[in-house]
Amino acid sequence: MTAGNNGADTPENDDPFGYLYRSEGGQGGSAGDGAATRQPGVPRTSYNQVRAVGQRQYGQQSQQVTYGQQNAHYAAPETLPGGDRTRPTPAPGHGGAPEPRRRNGLLIGAVAVVAVVCIGIGVAMLTNGNDNKDTSAGKPGPTAGDTVAPSGQPPAKPKPGQLPKQDAGSLRLDGGASTAKDVPGARSAGGTYVAGMNTPGASATWTVDVDAPGRYKLWVGYGVPGKDENLTLNINGKAESRPINMENFAHAPEGAWDKGWTKTWSYIQLNKGTNSVKLSCESGNQCDVNLDKIWLTRN
Fold first, then answer.
1. Cβ pair 165, 158 in contact under 8 A
2. How far, rounded to the nearest angstrom, does the alpha carbon of residue 162 sit from its chain's CA centroid?
3. Burial of 290 per CB tally in 10 Å (0-12, 13-18, 19+)
4. Measured between alpha carbons, how far is 47 from 16 in angstroms, rounded to an integer?
5. 27, 129, 154, 260: least buried by Cβ within 10 Å?
6. Rounded to 10 degrees, what is the CA torsion of 148, 149, 155, 161?
7. pTM for the whole thing?
8. What's the rounded Cα separation, in Å, for the pair 157 and 149?
9. Alpha-carbon distance 147 to 142, whole Å?
10. pLDDT in tens, 229-256
11. Residue 197: which of 220, 234, 230, 241 has the closest Cα?
């Protein structure tokens, strides 16, 4: 190629891809085979032609490849010896396709275990919240000397810093005193109170524990039939005793037992540990009284 000659030769000599434009077996286009002869100095036009996808044309021959149909000149890699080496092969022993189903099964099992644990925790919380479970089945009944609550359970011990408080019906009863529920309005559990105190020698004894010795205020809940009454108070079995006033502080009309529920108090001296507090009907007392509660407060 000389100066001033910009590609006057055939495409095969100046175009490295010239073999794409010549016909099979030929060396280049010429006027005789239908290809335009290039003139010196004339710019070359594109040799590319727009063709349908899959169609190739060499000179006067054309070949169209239809996808999806078997072609004698083409075979898929998986049909050749050795198969398709580009696809991943499942690891031995893992089962291939069933692996997702196995994972789903493990997930469902884990969810089921969590649900069972949550249900168990809920049931345990509800069960522990019931403090009234009856544990007295098969136990012997109280004797005359026992201090027990009306339900048959021993009186609950007070919490630290609190003083004892007890239903009168759980005290030790002697001399004809007994429990009853006939008169409404008693402030004890189940409306139980001590009756029969108007018999000489009838008594109700409270066994009480305190953490420190000293002077305490003894409170007694009672009911009278619209009249002033009194009992005898004795601490720790001493020969010295004194009356405890049980007036009609509720101002109930005479004979109205249900309107006469009230309370009274008296100072007592207690020892550290166990003490006995006895209320009794002695000579000279007016003992027509019912007892429903008894408790301590600090002086």
1. yes
2. 33
3. buried
4. 13
5. 129
6. -130
7. 0.49
8. 12
9. 8
10. 999 999 999 888 999 999 999 999 999 9
11. 230
